[in-house]
Amino acid sequence: MSLVWAIMRRDMLASLRRGSEWSNPLIFFVMVCALFPLGIGPDPKQLAVLAPGILWVVALLASMLATDSLFRSDFDDASLEQVLLSGSPLFPQVLAKTLAHWCMTGLPLSLVSPLLGVLLQLPTSGMWALLLSLAIGTVVLSVIGAIGAALTVGLRKGGLLLSLIVLPLYIPVLIFGSSAVQTAVEGASYTPQLALLGALLLGAIALAPLAIGAALRISVDQ
Amino acid sequence: MSSAILQCEQLYSERDDRVLFADLSFSLAAGEILQIAGPNGAGKTSLLRILAGLSSRFEGELRWRGQSMLHNCAQFHRETHYLGHGAGLKAVLSPLENLRWSCALRGVSQADEAIFGALDKVGLSGYEYHPCLALSAGQQRRVNLARLFCSSAALWILDEPFTAIDQKGVAEIESWLAEFKTAGGMVLLTSHQPLSPSLGANVIDLGAH
Amino acid sequence: MSFWTYFHKWGSPRWFYQFSGRLMPWLAIPAVVLLLGGFAWGLAFVPPDFKQGNSFRIIYLHVPASAVAMGAYMLMATAGAIHLIWRMKLAAMVMKSVAPVGAALTFLALLTGAVWGKPTWGTYWVWDARITSVLILFFLYLGILALQQAFENQEAAAKACAVLAIVGAVNIPIIYWSVEWWYSLHQPASIKFVGESTIHSSMLRPLIATLTGMYCFLGWMVLLNTRNEILYRERNTRWVKDVLTGAGS
Q1: Chain-chain contact of A147 with C167 (C-beta, under 8 angstroms)
Q2: Interface pTM (ipTM) of the complex?
Q3: Which listed site, B198, C89, C158, C170, has its alpha carbon 20 to 30 Å from A172?
Q4: Which residues have CB under 8 Å from B44's CB, separation 6+?
Q5: Which domain holds residue B64?
Q6: Residues B145 and B165 grouped into a single domain
């Protein structure tokens, strides 16, 4: 447990001091959401219909772009070698790193999402659903994205490749997440969707670190 | 050589269809220093990465305390310090914060005392709370070397430890190596410059293979 | 012969090259006969569907292509797992060989689906659950191919693709199910078309023929690709030089 805490503390401290790591995805989220009314017109009714989908897709993209940096700096400065050679099990280490990364990217994204919901005319009934579905969903996105980030960290041009690898795997999260918001807007109960997202979360946390660990070993061993 | 702790038998590795080394066998016993020499591109770093367990691109047999490294690599990693080319430091964090992380990875609890001692030993006392980006390249290298003294190990694997270190520093590092050697430690290192003869290091020249 | 000696023999590229050379006609001939025969049977001799007329006949290409594309992904993931667990190099070559064939079959399934969609639904593309799933499978293949090409080092590429293929294989059921769910949520069952289960047996038999033919075709193509890969990777060995100069078999 102290291992997990030490890793999370170091990563979050570094990310807080650097600043851009947690602020850039947020700025991206806000900017791209602001592009949509410009692209499809300011009609509040139309925006309200599209808002759940737009918010979820943009949050997903922001989370994915942020994931690219998850292992990048550790790879560049060789701390990743220390991680692999520490003799401690890799599973909690990569999980801690990924969760720390989520605290710096996915969590702020979820917290500002109601604000953007207001900008995009999302009915108030959907706000809680948006916040909760993003809070759970972005963890899954971070964990799945970490697999892609670990696979591409050793490559010079990782960014676009990462999206090709990861986006198809994001689809279930997008489906359940945006559906939760839509259902809430329609006034029905969205607990089933949240429960499904929770199931995805548990499955991802149980299995993905194995793939992340294996991928990191491969990326370092080139 | 019955007391050999690290045994490497018939190592073979190639890169891009070029054989780096073949039929390379050596062993290391307590209190021995082995320098791996050779021109650029001879495969010194590759060999160290293979020995450290970072690279699987080789054929041959590696044994640690008589057991194949395939099966007890966790124990081997616990007993080994590997210092590669990279500094392994986060520039925005202080030496203390960086080393706390390194110690936690290796399962050292209550590490602060050890870290202060280690930083003092490498001549960085007073810099504990400075962010690493404010330190010079040589000082960052020293922070990295301080990891050697934060937790005990039986084997140090050092890739070019003298890079960015001044002449006085080189002598200092050599004295640490000598100290470690008398305490029964083993060192495996690459270096372009010859080590001081007083260390009594064995040399393997990869260029000769 | 024990399992492990068998396993190691299988892992030897040279042995596989020779074995696959003998195996290939047994896949190639059924592939050609069953596919061509099945098409002729399905196109010319099966009575037209009473709702869709003649347009349904494209299933004799569409269904085998989508089913085999799915099977090919599972084959790729299995080969990847074997490569990662037992470090069998041959499995990596098989995995690399399956990917382009699977991607091509998936594309064929999408294309035939679109062609079929025009007379059936009046449009080339419908966000139907099944077509969307095939589209996502196509994306998964593209991801694997892109990752494969990004690595300079062959071994790292093989291992990375193996990890990705396994992750994809674990995710495919979840993705398919979520797409199914998504579709049922948005589309009250207004579009229903003839599925395999309600198909008349006279239509089914040629379908089974082309399906089997397509599996043989996959096996044939994979063997061809793998043999090529073996020759390339072992190009410096004596036996490959003998094969290429015609001295050996």
Answers
A1: yes
A2: 0.91
A3: C158
A4: B36, B37, B38, B159, B190, B206
A5: 1-79+155-209
A6: no
